[in-house]
Amino acid sequence: MEEHGILVADKDTEFLREVTDHFSDAGYQVETTHSAVHIISSILEKQTPVVLLGSDFDKKINLVELLQFLKKCNRHLAVILVSDEESLPVVKKVRKEGVFQYALRPVNEFKQSVGCTFSAA
Q: Which of 106, 105, 100 lies closest to 6 in space, CA to CA?
């Protein structure tokens, strides 16, 4: 399998560990962060193809504005927004901003989404 890069951004360290273990074992190159600045610099420097973004990972920045900015940095970026709950208003907003998928935790609920991002390219 060709190695694909995934950036996982979330404030929950246990979730980051679980995602890293799962996707590393599946052959993906996984990078994790707690910082919006790190996400932006990673997208600008490496052109990371997929971002798994926790819906409330950084309270200092508006989620919709972050998504708009990320898509401006790389219009081909696949963002999978990961949340603990489904909120129709949030889903509508993030879909409008080009989110590839809105996924619910746990990891097994969205692991197929990651594979789909690479096959859609």
A: 100
- Model pTM? 0.78
Please say whether the beta carbons of 48 and 80 come within 8 A. no
Where do the H-state alpha helices sit in 12-100? 13-25, 36-46, 63-73, 88-96
Helix (H) or strand (E) holding 103: strand 101-104
3-state helix, strand, coil in the chain (%, to 5): 45, 20, 30
Encode the chain (121 residues) as per-residue pLDDT tens digits: 345 889 999 988 888 898 899 889 888 899 999 888 889 899 888 768 899 888 777 778 888 888 888 888 888 888 888 877 777 677 777 777 777 777 767 666 666 667 666 665 5
- Its CATH architecture, for the domain 5-103, is 3-Layer(aba) Sandwich (3.40)
Which sequence spans correspond to the domains of the chain? 5-103
Residues 107, 95: Cα–Cα separation, whole Å: 21
